[in-house]
Amino acid sequence: MTRSLTVTQITDRSPTGRDVVASMRDVAKRYGDFDALADVSFDLERDKIYGLLGRNGAGKTTIMSILTGQGVQTSGEVTVFGATPFENARVLREVSFIKESQTYPDDLRVKHVLSTAGHLMERWDRDFAELLLDDFQLPLGRRVKKLSRGMKSALGVIIGLASRAPLTLFDEPYLGLDAVARQMFYDRLLADYAEHPRTVVLSTHLIDEVANLLEHVIVVERGRVLLDDDADELRRRAVVVTGPTAAVDAFGAKGTVLHRDSLGSQARATVQVTADVADRARLLDAGGTIEPASLQELVIRTTTQESTP
Ligand SMILES: Nc1ncnc2c1ncn2[C@@H]1O[C@H](COP(=O)(O)OP(=O)(O)OP(=O)(O)O)[C@@H](O)[C@H]1O
């Protein structure tokens, strides 16, 4: 007798022991004669929180749509839980994709949307959904079309969290939320993730806000992957140095200068370095300073550097 595997058991254990739940290999997406994605390759590992970051039009939504079977690539290979996601109900039951532009049939009330989500998502937690409804103060009986923009965003966030899908993608659904509600989302996500780990992908422009949530960062620019790194590793490698121009430039020469400003005899540079104690000491001796770059600074500098002709 053959026993069928559940989707979440199907993962690609690479020789390095990485537990990959989804991957893209050399993926391209073409709209007419426009290349929205080119040579996109990355893996998503089990039980990690990813930041999918990049400027407007970089290709983030296109990537998420393909991973969740809402679009199909022009070429390349996409695997989610061991299979092609497109038109694959078995895979898509394990995937939750929440986006800002989500529309719902006009006549549905909040309670109808939630009960539909409950039927569709295998791991739906009704109690958790109710707790979140209370947090975000969403009226169950209200028609979705009568909800404010922020309330609609909250509805998406509730569905994404309470689904507990093994692969959950949030494409900026929290844009309509105010600062208090966004913080609530981050807090609830982190607390629930600690108890029910899963793979989460967050696409956002509010990088500073989510920086502490992210374990891994994928930065896209003009349809290509620019960075695909562990968040702590990125933080260790990227620094902002200031000081006398000669000292800053000497330090910069030991790595990749992502950005540099100067004013008179002083300079400030964002540098990706493999840390060398002696280089650091020389800079400090010359009166310079060295600080870790924020994830936001790193992403801005990396993507603007790429866009500069
Ligand atoms: N259906 C489509 N037809 C033509 N071009 C498209 C289509 N969908 C997306 N594009 C283009 O593909 C590129 C990537 O779009 P995408 O929505 O993936 O970017 P994004 O990184 O999510 O942007 P944002 O941060 O602004 O939401 C953009 O130049 C966009 O105009």
UniProtKB/TrEMBL annotation:
Q: Does the keyword Lipoprotein apply?
A: no
Kindly give the InterPro entries that the UniProt entry links to this protein.
AAA+_ATPase (IPR003593), ABC_transporter-like_ATP-bd (IPR003439), ABC_Transporter_VariousFunc (IPR051782), P-loop_NTPase (IPR027417)
A Pfam cross-reference name: ABC_tran
- Which Gene3D superfamilies does the entry link to? P-loop containing nucleotide triphosphate hydrolases (3.40.50.300)
Could you cite one Gene Ontology molecular function of this protein? ATP binding
Name this protein carries in UniProt: ABC transporter ATP-binding protein
UniProt entry keywords in alphabetical sequence: ATP-binding, Nucleotide-binding, Transport
Q: Taxonomy-wise, where does this protein's organism fall, top ranks first?
A: Bacteria, Bacillati, Actinomycetota, Actinomycetes, Mycobacteriales
Domain ABC transporter, chain residue ranges per copy: 22-247
Q: Which SMART domains match?
A: AAA (SM00382)
